[in-house]
Amino acid sequence: MKKRIPSNLTLTFEEISEARIYCLRQAQGSFSSDLHLLQRGKAVPNSSSLRTLSPMVCQNGLLRVGGRLSNSLLPEEVKHPIILPKHHRISLLILEHEHRIHLHPCVTALFVIVRQQYWIVGARNMIRKLTHACLKCFRQRHKTTDQYMADLPAVRVRQAYPFEITGCDYAGPLLLKVHKGRNPRKEKGYICLFVCLVTSAIHLELATDLSTETFLAALRRFISRRGKYTHIFSDNGRNFVGAKKVLDEMYKLILSQQHNTQVTQALASEDIEVSYLSPAHLLIGRPYTSVPEGDLGHIAVNRLDYWQNVQAMLQGFWKRWHQEYITTLQQRPKWNTERKNIATGDMAIIKDSNTPPASWTLARIIEVYP
Fold first, then answer.
1. Domain named DUF5641: which ranges (predicted)?
2. Cis bond leading into 173, ω under 30°?
3. Enclosing domain of residue 298
4. How far, in Å, are 94, 140, 148, 192 from residue 151 at the CA level?
5. Computed over its alpha carbons, how large is the radius of gyration of the chain?
6. CA-to-CA distance for 172 and 239, rounded, in angstroms?
7. What is the 3-state secondary structure (H, E, C) of 317-359?
8. What's the CA gap between 225 and 282, in Å, rounded?
9. CATH number at residue 221
10. How many structural domains comprise the chain?
11. Rounded CA gap, 279 and 286, in Å?
């Protein structure tokens, strides 16, 4: 007569607990000699690897840490965790289980989590190997590819007037009050940031939007205060591209022969002679195309007139800039290792700031743009 198999195959809590205890006893077979001594009321020998743990046997026959925390307020399973051998299959399964249910923590975090219940000999090295072999952990800890830091460009390390070589970018958005008083209406605005690439000086202008016209107005205000630049660097923003087109058109107009002829005739008809004094003489102390002074460092200070004294001070500032500031740019604080360039066919992970690292997608490089 065949034995009837019960239809309900769900394991109960007691069955799972007994199975866990049985598996743990099998894993602790590596400490059988120490276990037998403890069951007979004897201490483990000095040569035992468990000597420093002061091991003891619990009522389930499992080997636990005796330790020094019996007077603490920690739970019993934390004060006396179960001892397990290293490189055992049961130990590895426990680490993999805790690693998975706690959402792939780092080595130290997983080590602390496991210690709340189990004392696995050599657990830290096992955890390192486990996280190193985990694909999800690899995707989370992988760093963005970088290249060897290049030398500083000439515009950064050669003497020039402040803001003669300028970098430009936008910051924001931020909220602006349209008027004063109660409940003022607020609108979104931006900061137009100009940075001198030689002296690291900063000039800020307010921009009410990101249009080309607003940027050109901010650029005119910047030039009226700091002088005309020779080079300006920016990213490929639409407002910058639009401004470049407008400035190119103005530049072509100024250089055209027809424009210059008409302006000259109009001024001559009004008896106006051109030899001008611009606001730049007062605002920045020089015209836009001033000729630099000769070296005044070898002349005694009491022999210099007022203007030469000012120019000598300026030359002294630049001398210190060359001797004290430029030399501090020698080191490469990061990206100091030459690496293989990304090539066609390489596998890559696409970083997305709006998703967690475990959800970043894989991609294949089909084309590169050096």
1. 306-370
2. yes
3. 292-329
4. 51, 31, 10, 28
5. 38
6. 15
7. HHHHHHHHHHHHHCCCCCCCCCCCCCCCCCEEEECCCCCCHHH
8. 10
9. 3.30.420.10
10. 3
11. 9
Q: Report residue 226 as tokens.
A: 């700091």
178 and 129 housed in the same domain? no
Whether residue 359 is predicted with pLDDT greater than 90 in this model: the reply is no
| Interval 163-190: pLDDT, tens | 888 888 887 788 887 777 777 778 888 8
pLDDT tens-digit series, residues 40-59: 888 888 888 888 888 888 88
Handedness of CA 207, 208, 211, 217 (dihedral sign): negative
- Residue pointed to by tokens 């003669």: 164
Q: What is the mean pLDDT of residues 142-156?
A: 78
What is the 3-class SS of the chain, one letter each residue?
CCCCCCCCCCCCHHHHHHHHHHHHHHHHHHHHHHHHHHHCCCCCCCCCCCHHHCCEECCCCCEECCCCCCCCCCCHHHHCCEEECCCCHHHHHHHHHHHHHCCCCCHHHHHHHHHCCEEECCHHHHHHHHHHHCHHHHHHHCCCCCCCCCCCCHHHHCCCCCCCEEEEEEEEEEEEECCCCCCCCEEEEEEEEEEECCCCCEEEEEECCCCHHHHHHHHHHHHHHHCCCCEEECCCCHHHHHHHHHHHHHHHHHHCHHHHHHHHHHHHHCCCCCCCCCHHHHHCCCCCCCCCCCCCCCCCHHHCCHHHHHHHHHHHHHHHHHHHHHHHHCCCCCCCCCCCCCCCCCEEEECCCCCCHHHCEEEECCCCCC
Specify which residues 333 forms β-bridges with: none
> What are the pLDDT digits (tens) for 274-291?
474 455 555 555 555 554
362 is a domain residue = no
Residue 234 lies in a domain: yes
The answer on pLDDT for 366 being more than 90 is: yes
CB neighbours of residue 224 within 10 Å: 14
Indicate the residue type of 270. E
Give the pTM: 0.49
